Every structure is written in structure tokens, then in C-alpha cells.
Amino acid sequence: MDKRNKNYKGLLIIISSPSGAGKTTICKKISKKDKNINLSISYTTRKKRKSEIEGRHYNFINIKKFNEMKKNKMLLESAKVFGNNYGTPIKNIIKKIDNGKDVIFDIDWQGANQIRKKFPNQIVDFFIMPPSIKELRMRLIKRGQDDLNIVNKRMKMAFKEIKHYDEYKYILVNDNFNKTVKKIIDIIKIERLQKSNLIKIRRNFNKI
Question: Model pTM?
Fold first, then answer.
């Protein structure tokens, strides 16, 4: 634990983008490069893909369990995407930020709005844009996870997602993966410093 964690509550770092723009890969890379940033693992009712590992990519649960968690307010945010439910467990997140750990989220605009309302002073949010719509479509096809019908549905969803870009503080075009990751990490460092300085100022004024 570094020195700032004694009086510092962690940041909630939100990364949103249309499907295929790189948000999942970006989140994983950032959490590997900065050990103080924890990757949030969502719950989902979606069927597990062959390449996915339980607890690493998602926590896979049935719809009954998901609805119970939502009813009992165990989720920080939740959203329905392509008929599947996704949600973030609130208990683990609060524990981490209370211990000074930052948490990074790979979520859509719906989840981002819910977290902003609950933790307005802890948020650093980014919207990742693809270099072009043509490039986005090519990425979706090349990754080979979906048939062409699903790719077309994802493209329609992408247009809806992009309409919400101006709700985010930082907007970046992911035309170079490593440069995009570096920009995000640099911004996070600045946000941490500003937050730490604000804590010091408030503490000093409270002594007066």
C-alpha cells in the first residue's frame, strides 16, 4: 500500500465504447500496467464462450440469481445488452475504493450513468471511439466471435452507443492501442494527484 492510500479513496475508472472499439483489451492492459488499478469482473447471464474463464472474464450466473442480486441491491450497476444481463457487484467495489484501490470498469453508457449517480466524486470516465465506422465493422468481423447477423446488430448498437460520447469527460480515438493506453494512464495519474491535493486542502482548512 502506498502513502496516498491512508487518506485516499480509490477512483472509479469507466471505459466505454461501442463493441469492437477496444475497451475490454484496454482495461486489461491498464490493470496489468498499474497494480493499484483493479479490474472489475461483472456478472452476466450470457452463455460462456469456449475461450472464457469463469471469474476471470465474467462471473456466469442464471437469470434467477441475477434478478435476486438486483432486487437485493447487490449490484452497483446493471444493463441488458443483446438480451443478456450484465451487472457489477457493489460490495467488492466499495471495499476496494475504501482501501485506496482504483477500479476500472468495462461497461456501456447505461452502467456508466448509474455509477455516476451513486459516486459522482469518484468518477474518471473515458469514451473510446473507433478510427472510423468502416474500421469498427472490420474489427468485429476479424475477431470471429459472431456471425454476420450479430455483427450487423452490433453495428446498429454502436451507433446508439456513440450518441452518448458527450456524457464522458474524456473522449479518445483508439487508432493506436499502445498510445491510447498511455494517454489513459497519464490522465489517471493527473486525476489521482488532483484528488489527493483536494483531500489535503480540505484537511488543512478543517483545522482552521
Answer: 0.85
Give the C-alpha separation, 186 to 29, whole Å.
14
> How far is the C-alpha of 112 from the C-alpha of 166, rounded, in Å?
12
Close Cβ partners of 41 (under 8 Å, ≥ 6 residues apart): 55, 56, 57, 58, 59
Look up cell 472509479; give the residue.
Answer: 12
Contact 202, 159 (CB under 8 A): no
| Residues of the chain where predicted confidence (pLDDT) is lower than 70 | 1-7, 144, 196-208
Q: Show Cβ contacts of residue 35 under 8 Å, excluding neighbours closer than 6 positions.
A: none
Q: Out of 3.40.50.300, 3.40.50.2020, 1.25.40.10, 3.60.15.10, which CATH number does the structure's domain 3-206 have?
A: 3.40.50.300
Which residues, at least 6 apart from 199, have a Cβ–Cβ distance to it below 8 Å?
A: 7, 8
